[in-house]
Amino acid sequence: MAYLIDITPRAKRDLDRVFEEIRASDSEAALKWYRGLYVAILTLEKLPHRCPSTRENSQFRHLLYGHKPHIYRVIFRVLEKQKQIEVLHVRHGARREFADTELE
């Protein structure tokens, strides 16, 4: 059974910021990359446990997308009882580790 993907308001803002930062509205290649990121997030509906736990919090997992030096981390948690994936945060992989308080 597939999991339902829930992209939190915080993660939506993060995705909007990524869209602006890579100038996806001005570049076909950037738009294609952005769409690939979004599709990668949607693949979490199947086999979300394929992604490792984060260093910051073992209850969270992360999906890496892109190639060095442009790797982004999609931080999410699996809510088994609800059969839901809660996408919490999207950030550039080169940024310092996040604190749990950033996700509130």
Description:
By secondary structure, this protein is of the alpha+beta class. 27% of the residues lie in helices and 25% in strands. It is built from two helices and four strands, in the order E-H-H-E-E-E. It has helices at 9-21, 28-42, and strands at 4-7, 61-65, 72-79, 84-92. The protein has a four-stranded mixed sheet with strand order 1-4-3-2. A hairpin with a 6-residue loop joins strand 2 and strand 3 (72-79).
**Whole-number average pLDDT?**
90
The poorly predicted ranges are none
> How many beta-strand segments?
4
Major sheet characteristics? 4 strands, mixed
Strand order across the largest sheet: 1-4-3-2
Helix content: 25-40%
Question: Strand portion, in percent?
Answer: 25-35%
Would you identify the CATH architecture? Answer: 2-Layer Sandwich
Q: Whole-Å distance between the termini?
A: 29 Å
Q: Which class in CATH terms?
A: Alpha Beta
Quickly count the helices. Answer: 2
Give the quaternary arrangement of the chains.
single chain
Helix- and strand-based class?
alpha+beta
| Cα-atom radius of gyration | 13 Å
Shape: globular
Domain unit count: 1
CATH fold node name: YaeB-like fold
SSE pattern: EHHEEE
CATH level-four homologous superfamily name? RelE-like
